[in-house]
Amino acid sequence: MNKLFIEGLADAIGFVGGALLGFWIGQMLGWDIFAPGYSNASMGGILLAGLGGGGGLHLARRWQAARNAGKNEE
Question: Against a cut of 0.90, is the pTM above it?
Answer without folding.
Answer: no
